[in-house]
Specification:
This protein is α/β, with parallel strands linked by helices and 472 residues long. Helix content is 51%, strand content 13%. It has 20 helices and 14 strands. It is extended and about 90 Å long.
C-alpha cells in the first residue's frame, strides 16, 4: 500500500452518479472515502469530529451551494484542502471560490489522471503550508537564539561579520540606535560560537542605579551591606565559560568601570564585601546607543576600557536606512502575530506599503514590531495608517501633526522652546523636501528617475511629495 493509506477524503456532490464515480476511483487508488449529497450534511459530518485530509466539493448544489459550504468549512478549518468541482462556463464562480479559500478546482467532465493530479497538488500544498508554518514557529523561537530577520545588503554585511567573529573569543562592541536589534546580534554571536551550550547572561546597565548594578554584576558576600543576609553570585560568575552581554554600557558608572577593567585584564574580580578574588572565563559583548568616543573625550567613559571592548565593532544601521527590511519585517511580524493571536488581519498593500516606506521609524524594528502587534490585536488598519501619516509619535495626547502647527505658531517667540522630537521631525522634513526637489529638478520632474536617484520606491516618492507639499 502507498502513502495514501491514512488519507481520508470527503466527497460532496448532489449528483449520485458523479459521487459514486469519484468514490470508486479514490477507493481503487487506496484512499478512505466518505460521501455526502449536500453541504449541510458535510458540515455536520466534520462538526462531529470526523477527520479528513481533503474535501472534494461540487459548486452547484441545491439549498446550500458550494460557496456557502466552503465558507462554513473555512470557519471549521482554515487550512483543510478543498478541491472544487465546476461545470463548463462557471469561470466567475470559480474565481469567487479561489478567493474564498479553495485550494484548487476541476472542470467536469474530467479524466481520472486529472483528478489524481489535482488531489496530489492539493495535499502537497497543505504539506508545504504546514512545513512553512512550522518553520516560522521555529524562527520565532530562534529569535532568542540569535536568529535575526533581514532582507537588506546592509544587514547581510552585519550577518557576515557575526559569522566571521562568532567562533573567536574577542570582545565585541555593538553600536546602533535603540530598537535596531543589538541584543539579537549579541545572541547570534553567542549561539553561533562554540559556547552555544554555555550560559548567555544579559545585564542592562541603564536599568539599575550604581550600587545595585555593582552587586548585580559582581555579587556580594553575606553582611556586605544592610539586607545582605546571605552571599549571592553575580552575573559574571553565572556567565562563567559563556557570554555576558552588557547592554547600554555607556551608562556604566566610572567606579564600576574600574572593576570591569580588572575582569578584562586579568579575568578576576572580588564580590562586594569579599576578600578573595573570583576567577572567571567570560566572553564580553557590549552594546550602546551612545557615541562612546565622545563619552571618552568627555571623561565619562574610560579610554582603556573602550579600546578593550571595541576589539571588533559591529554597527547596526537604523531601519530608515534599510528600506528593503521594512516590508519584509512587517510581513514577518504580521504572520507571526496573526498566528499567535488566532487572527487573520489582511490589508491593501497598495495603500499601506507606501506609508510604511515613507515613515521614518525612529523606534526602528522595535517600533515596527509593536505597531504590527497593535494592528493585529485591534484589527484596525486605519489606526496604523493614521499613526504613519501623523508621524507616529504623540505629544501630550495629541498627534504630532496637530501640535506641529501650534509649535510653529510660537517658534518666533524667544521664550518658547520647540520640543526636541518635533524640532528633529521638522528638520528631517525640510531636509527631505530639499533633497526631493533637487532630484525632481535634476530629472526635469521625471518622478521615476527621481525615485531611483533617491533610492526609494516610486510609490514612496509620491507619498513624500504629498507629505512635503511639493508642487511643480
Amino acid at each position: 500500500m502507498t502513502m495514501t493509506d491514512k488519507i481520508r477524503i470527503l466527497v460532496v456532490d448532489d449528483d449520485d452518479s458523479i459521487r459514486r464515480y469519484i468514490a470508486k476511483l479514490l477507493t481503487q487508488s487506496g484512499y478512505d472515502v466518505i460521501t455526502e449529497s449536500n453541504g449541510k450534511d458535510a458540515i455536520n459530518e466534520l462538526r462531529t469530529g470526523t477527520e479528513v485530509s481533503l474535501v472534494i466539493l461540487d459548486i452547484l448544489m441545491p439549498e446550500m451551494d458550494g460557496l456557502e459550504t466552503l465558507a462554513e468549512l473555512r470557519k471549521l478549518s482554515g487550512d483543510l484542502p478543498v478541491l472544487m468541482l465546476s461545470a463548463l462556463g462557471q469561470t466567475n464562480i470559480i474565481v469567487k471560490a479561489m478567493k474564498s479559500g479553495a485550494t484548487d478546482y476541476l472542470v467536469k467532465p474530467f479524466e481520472e489522471e486529472e483528478l489524481e493530479l489535482a488531489i496530489t497538488k492539493s495535499l502537497e500544498k497543505k504539506k508545504l503550508l504546514t512545513e512553512i508554518s512550522s518553520l516560522k514557529k521555529q524562527l520565532r523561537i530562534d529569535e532568542l537564539r540569535g536568529e535575526f530577520m533581514y532582507n537588506s545588503p546592509k544587514m547581510q554585511r552585519v550577518k557576515d561579520l557575526v559569522d566571521q567573529v562568532a567562533e573567536t573569543d574577542v570582545s565585541v562592541l555593538i553600536e546602533g540606535e535603540s530598537g535596531t536589534g543589538k541584543e539579537l546580534v549579541a545572541r547570534a554571536l553567542h549561539y553561533s560560537s562554540g559556547m552555544r551550550d554555555k550560559p548567555f547572561v544579559k545585564v542592562n546597565c541603564a536599568a539599575l542605579p550604581h550600587e545595585l548594578l555593582e552587586s548585580e554584576l559582581f555579587g556580594y558576600e553575606r553582611g556586605a551591606f544592610t539586607g545582605a543576609y546571605k552571599a549571592k553570585a553575580g552575573k559574571f560568575e553565572l556567565a562563567n565559560n559563556g557570554t555576558i552581554f552588557l547592554d547600554e554600557i555607556g551608562e556604566m558608572d566610572l567606579g564600576i568601570q574600574s572593576k570591569l577593567l580588572q575582569v578584562l585584564q586579568e579575568g578576576t574580580f572580588s564580590r562586594l564585601g569579599g576578600k578573595q578574588d573570583v576567577k572567571v572565563n567570560v566572553r564580553i559583548i557590549t552594546a550602546t546607543n551612545r557615541d562612546l568616543r565622545k563619552a571618552v573625550e568627555q571623561g565619562i567613559f574610560r579610554e582603556d576600557i573602550y579600546y578593550r571592548l571595541n576589539v571588533v565593532n559591529i554597527h547596526i544601521p537604523p531601519l530608515s536606512e534599510r528600506n528593503e527590511d521594512i516590508i519584509y519585517l512587517f510581513e514577518y511580524f504580521l504572520d507571526a502575530y496573526n498566528e499567535k493571536y488566532g487572527k487573520n488581519v489582511i490589508l491593501d498593500k497598495e495603500e499601506v506599503y507606501p506609508l510604511l516606506l515613507g515613515y521614518s521609524w525612529p523606534g526602528n524594528v522595535r517600533e515596527l514590531k509593536n505597531q504590527v502587534k497593535r494592528l493585529v490585536i485591534l484589527g484596525d488598519i486605519n489606526d496604523l495608517m493614521r499613526y504613519l501619516k501623523d508621524g507616529g509619535a504623540f505629544v501630550q495626547g495629541k498627534h504630532v501633526k496637530e501640535t506641529r502647527q501650534e509649535t510653529l505658531d510660537v517658534v518666533n517667540n524667544d521664550k518658547e522652546i520647540m520640543p526636541l522630537k518635533l524640532a528633529a521631525k521638522e528638520a528631517s522634513l525640510k531636509a527631505e523636501r530639499d533633497m526631493i526637489l533637487r532630484a525632481l529638478r535634476g530629472t526635469n520632474w521625471n518622478k521615476k528617475k527621481a525615485a531611483q536617484m533617491l533610492q526609494i520606491s516610486y510609490k514612496a516618492l509620491l507619498y513624500k511629495i504629498k507629505e512635503c507639499g511639493i508642487e511643480k
